[in-house]
# Entry
Amino acid sequence: MPVRALYPPLSAFSAYGLGLQNSAHNLANVLTNNFKAGRVTYGELPGTSGVRANGPQKLDVRGPLTPYGPGLPPPAGADPAIPEGYAEGSTTEVGTEMLNLIVNSRTYQANARTVRTADEMLGTVINLKI
# Structure
């Protein structure tokens, strides 16, 4: 028999874990030219009280232009619309990613507490039956 009280926090572990991975990936590429940061959005799973992660979807914005040295070939994957001698920088915003890390980790912690509480409640029920 499945324990329905555990489904929402366990689905949230998966969803917000993906959010943590995405933020870590974005931060790891903050200095990578032509890197498009991804965003994860969250929604409710239909017919349940679980959480679903959507994404990561790449942001469709242009990164800052950075000079790359005269005589060097354009970086791999460079947009031809960018002037010669410049490369498109990463679209990662460090402040936004740090905020996402905090929110996702706190949500992860809250769901861990929910699982711990459900476990304690099930233990109490089992002890009552004995």
Summary: The chain has a mean pLDDT of 84. The beta strands are 38-44, 51-58, 65-67, 86-88. Helices lie at 7-28, 94-129. The chain has one domain: 4-60+92-129.
